[in-house]
Amino acid sequence: MAQLAQFPNDWQTALVLVAHPDDPEYGMSAAVNRWTSEGKRVVYGLATSGEAGIQGMTPQECGPLREDEQRASAARVGVNEVEFWGFPDSELFNTPQLRAKITEAINRIAPDVVLSLFGGPEWAPGFPNQRDHMEFSAAVRDAYAALPEPGPHWLFESGPLATHAVAVSRADIDAAVKALAEHRVYLEVLDPDTPVGEQAFDQVQRTTPVRDDFGGRRAVVFELISD
Hints:
The chain is α/β, with parallel strands linked by helices. It has a single domain (5-226), classed as 3-Layer(aba) Sandwich (Rossmann fold), CATH 3.40.50.10320. The chain is built from seven helices and eleven strands. The strands form two sheets. Strands 1, 2, 3, 4, 5, 8, 9, 10 and 11 form a nine-stranded mixed sheet that branches. The protein has a two-stranded antiparallel ribbon with strand order 6-7. The longest helix has 18 residues, at 59-76. The relative contact order is 0.21.
């Protein structure tokens, strides 16, 4: 396991930019809980409402339900600022309109650090990434690169590649499990044979590996894209 740097801690506001509801919970919410517990401000910006994400449910029914699940999920880790931008689920592209919205959110919220999604083609061999994620990641990178100086201090992505990590406690992990489990309807349809709590626990365990270089503690990893 490669030695990772400590995630920076000398900041006050983070903006988490993702494509869909549940994206923050599949990787970074244990870290978010640690940060909000320390008094840091974390804001979620979601490009879509995930309205195409539940099989057998119309977008008109699914979108509001997934927004409600995401707000409840965010609250579990101390986040009470959650924005939904209304871009079409499963039809995200790195367009001028999306980049403009990302830029507007960064300028308005003025974060010290921006956290976004992994944009590579595969999470692991045989596990392809979603097009929405890849397009959204590219839009965030492009919008960030075009910001005038001084902008946010750092841009990180959450995914399988890692340069930095933040150690998390049992309380952070428990909060992350509860946060993912708030996506109850989504998870029940995604895997009807596995209880929601079990799905959430297994996912959080996978994304908070025990790290010898962090004193044998569990940690959430991030890749530094720009500083």
